[in-house]
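ugh ok fine here u go
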Amino acid sequence: MNRIKKWILTSLMLATLFAVSLAIVYYDRHDAFVYVSLLWFFACIVVMFISKPNVQLWALYMGTAILTFGLYEAYLTGWFSEQSPELGNLSISNLYFQTHKILGYAPKKGIQIRAQKSYRNELLYNVQYTIDKNGLRTGFNHRQEPKKTAVLFFGGSFTFGEGVNDNETMPYRFEEKGIFKAFNFGFHGYGPHQMLAMLENKIEKAIVSNTAPKFAVYQAIPSHVERCAGRAWWDQSGPRYRLNEKSEAIYQGPFQNFLMSRFITVMTRSNLVRKWLSSSAKFTSIADIDLFIGIVNKSKSLFEKRYGGQFYVLLWPSDSQLYKAILSKLKTKQIKVIKIEDILSDIEKHRIRFPYENHPNQLAHDKIATYLLKFLQKVQ
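structure:
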């Protein structure tokens, strides 16, 4: 009977610890796992005082490991310094994101939020994101004359305009300056697999129905290769593609099932886990690059077949061999490429990125918009 009581008490204690831990994690604090570690460490201390010697030893080992993890987690979140060594997170509510059965995740429609980012007490930006009724970043729509010809912009945060206001994004400035209607289908963390999923499922068609899309511009960065291979920790529910024997990208369902996706989401609230996943995601293979090219090529084919327009890749540079491989394979597939270095000849001189991080600033968005407008007006 005593053994049954102990088993019941142990089960209740573990269930309570797990429930409290989940509540802390879902509270969405950047230091949630520090508190979770402290909770389990003190639980180990309690076990050491009430258990037999052999159990006490195991509790000591576990408590030491948990405390070590918690201390390093605390360091990564800046507990031991007034100035955190890491970039501050976007102060965006979870209500901004929602799950999407095709894309994995997407912004909620018809909302407006304020996003901030800082580094060592220095504010990098404090901007407004407005999502329209179609789920797209708001565009320029103040002119009275209708714009019949449209340009569709795809990509991740560079296209969406992370760190800049609604009227400072490249698609907004592109439309404001010229004769085309611009649709911004970009969003934080997206890759070419979301673009292909949109086109395969005709998500864009209802949104652009009253216009005539003539161009599509996919803004790519080298790390998109890892994203479409499924190694982005934030995108475990995203669309998974594999190449068939004809090197055609075929949809295989989401990267992970619901339960595994939720587990990874919970674990990536840990700064240490995210740090490890981010470093491990940088190892790419030829197969990863071929998949990226296959996804982009199929997107190009779908767009051109559906609208009879032209598809371009706007490619950001890097010093890596990955960038050179991407550029070479895109040209082999006869996919038209516009290189950022051809638009911004001296990236450092023009100061086109935010300090301490990688996203293009207002100047970059404006210069790229001006270049693209002139370029597309010539080739239309």
